[in-house]
Design goal:
The protein is mostly beta strands. The chain is built from 1 helix and 16 strands. Keywords: Cell projection, Cilium, Cytoplasm, Cytoskeleton, Flagellum, Meiosis, Repeat.
Length: 215
Amino acid sequence: EYEGERNAEGERHGRGKARLPNGDTYDGEYEHGLRNGQGTYRFTSGARYIGEYRQNKKHGQGIFFYPDGSKYEGDWVDDQRHGYGVYTYANGDSYTGDWFNHNRHGQGTYIYKESGSKYVGGWINGNQGGAAELIHLNHRFQGMFLNGYPIGRGKYVFDSGCEQHGEYVHAETAKEGEEEEEEHTLLVPPKWKATDITKVTLWTPNVEQPPSPTE
């Protein structure tokens, strides 16, 4: 069903309202039969999108409300979260930063609502990766991350005014050479191995530029 403006060729063109065969509805702008411009799309699942479209795809600025209560507000490219945006999760956590092809990718800040902890730094394909700072209530960790885990050398900085230096190392496998054991190790978080304690020094992350969102 469609109610709205059409052009000389009879295509949906201008402002209109439509109900799709699956029960979804769209209220907004059309161009040559396609959703184009500003509009509101409501899904039968309870989700809804309010924002810009280009040739039937979410493209530009928009807010997506998900059925679980989470929401994303920011840039879209070809139906994907892409560019800069803020995602508020159903459990109250939030991520503010770069997106690339629907994933957290680039530089961003993730806040854990329950603990109040905050991760500030690099992301690679949805996971924590690269130089970052993990900030807790009375101390923080500064170092490198890979696939969501700290890896290699880093330091803990305590509010009391001292630092503990060391590195995160993967646990050794009990039976080397067995594939099952090796695969199991990948699931075990690396362990912190402390080396020395010093006074607080200035830390600056070695930030690599993420791929350009336009690429």
